[in-house]
Amino acid sequence: MDRQAYTDWIKRAGVALICITTTLAVAAAPPLVVLVDTGTEMPMAGFQDGRLVEGFHKDLGLALADKLGRDASFLPLPRKRIAMAMESGQADLICLYLPPWLPGKFNWTRGFFPVSEVVVTDTSVPQPRSLRDLSGQPVATVLGYYYPELEDALGKDFVRDDGHSSSGNLRKMAAGRLHHAITQQSTLDYYLKVGEKLSLYSPLVVKNYKAQCAVSPQGQVAVSEVNKAIEQLIKDGSVSKIISNYQSRLK
């Protein structure tokens, strides 16, 4: 073998070794374990036989895992077990959350997923023009959820009527048992498409915000990596597409 042939062989062998090493590294990457609150409803999350089968949480988890070069593994848990699972590293992250909802020493990504929280009122009672108009009136809320805007606006006159889910609260409204409920706009839109008919005023916006992901310090992925993946999802339009896919289903 002459010198040039030997040099070419070394180069080809080096390239092959790099390819093999890269392939093994990708294959060996652990899955991205994504926590999902089992109390979450469509379009955020849909469950079947205890498995996450559809919704924003699934689509977003798959998209993030893809950008991170991993498979996604979803871990549905009740809300009361989420903090412990995150603290122990049983899961890598949970998305579509805000820091006040999950106290603990977690690393938080940038806000990126638009959410609108609204109060809806049926047309059998006067329409509230501001949160103060709800003073002393029962508002359907979800057990365990925190509503700082209503608490700040109403103080002791914020009357909670806790239910287990937003859809259950909207069913109470349909049955005439309650006249006001706080929910997410996306949940309301989905319910109005698939649930009982409701005669409602235009929703009163409580707040618009961008939800984040909490990343476990004991997990297999760094918050900087997740932020980079989120940035890619924003730039390539994936976040908007995830939302629009469900909006188009409701038309």
From TrEMBL:
Domain Solute-binding protein family 3/N-terminal: where?
Answer: 31-250
The cross-references to Pfam families, in alphabetical order and at most eight, read: SBP_bac_3
Q: Which SUPFAM superfamilies match?
A: Periplasmic binding protein-like II (SSF53850)
Q: Which UniProt keywords apply?
A: Signal
Reply yes or no: does the keyword Signal apply: yes
PANTHER family in alphabetical order = AMINO ACID ABC TRANSPORTER SUBSTRATE-BINDING PAAT FAMILY PROTEIN (PTHR35936:SF6), MEMBRANE-BOUND LYTIC MUREIN TRANSGLYCOSYLASE F (PTHR35936)
What protein name is recorded for this chain? Transporter substrate-binding domain-containing protein
